Amino acid sequence: MIKVLVTNDDGINAAGLTALVEKLADHAEVYVAAPADQQSAKSQSITFLREVHAEEREVKGAVRAWAVDGTPADCVKWAVGRLGKEGIEPDFLFSGINLGMNLGLAAYYSGTIGAAREGALNGIRSIALSVGHYNINHETLSFDYVLGQLPRFMEMALKLSPSTVISVNAPDAPSWEIKGLRIVPAAPFGYAEKYMFTETESGGFQLKTEKTGRDDRMRYDFDWVDEGYATVSPLPTSIADPVALMKLRDQAQESECLAVIVDAQTDVLDVIKKPRRFSENMERFARCISRMNIPMLITETYGQGKTLKEVRKYAGDSERVERTAPDAWTSPDMERNVSALGPDRVVIAGAPANTAVRETALGFLERGIEVIIAEDCCAATSKKERKRAMEDLSDAGCRIDSSETIIMELAGGCTKQVMDAVKEIIYS
Predict the structure, then answer these.
(1) Is pTM beyond 0.90 here?
(2) Which of 2, 114, 234, 294 has the lowest CB atom count within 10 Å?
(3) Measured distance CA(333)–CA(322) in Å, rounded
(4) Angle of helix 416-427 relative to helix 403-411, nearest 10 degrees?
């Protein structure tokens, strides 16, 4: 039986935690370590200027449960150490169910997500659950939809690295009123344009927030929850910024051309037409790009497997952009990498041509960058879909050509030695 650690930031007696433990107990060995009192908005803060105490409690459905007089992150740290002494290693950590949503930049302040992040840093697949309303005084009542999706959330977590937190947000509504589940990025904005301190009658100051405007392109968690959907957003725990490192080390030099390989992943081969030919063409394309020393950027969709080995062996240290939506530009990493390289034009190859390739190409066009599509290095679920995608991209302003023509054109600006090597790759 799987082992699950449950925590939260609303306190061990919170209704969301009670409901979650009871549901998990049907299929898992559940352990609870939660704050003794309310710890909302404590982020991932820890207690080190005083002792932390834990008191064993009874929580229905839990094998053992403790109330910890510390922050949500304290609870996770304490539980990992205590359970570890007994030889117990949790397979999953659930934080919640939080009484209120944690959308967008709230992830930085949330104790619910802070606890999940602490679990992820300890190598535990961690899932933060939040249900509620924009109004913090609104009493959350409906947990049924989220509870019914728990197995699905665990399946999602197994597809990702333990270092990635899954953040789930759902409206406070009966399950039959929730329209479905959307996998989307967390919004790059929060609950207010600004945080404003308003003086109270007693002379103190109360933090006030205001809901921000929705993005009309329906890209983020805020947008979909507004429409009555629940959302899943993967949140990284890494604090590294490779593009900034490249700039500070003077390794990121502007390049006239950039090659972008879109979602050439193992699971994509199962749904596209002529997967073997696609793999062979992608290998030849990546090999030529590498030989000409043209910067390469690789995009990947979460849960679609690894980038093809035929591409990886020539990709070297190429930057990777991971995201959940077809449009690679929904990932902040895309903007950062492209800005660092500053290309005048891009050559795009990958799949599916009618979704990920199309959306990514249109994003470059919107930014005034010339787009060239390597037609024979793009694939779709059918010949018809591929043809339609190429027509749409051509109408949008992309140049459509064969990889051979594109590569030989690029090689024309290289040394004779490189030109000869590229010819050998293409015509061998």
Answers:
(1) no
(2) 2
(3) 8
(4) 170
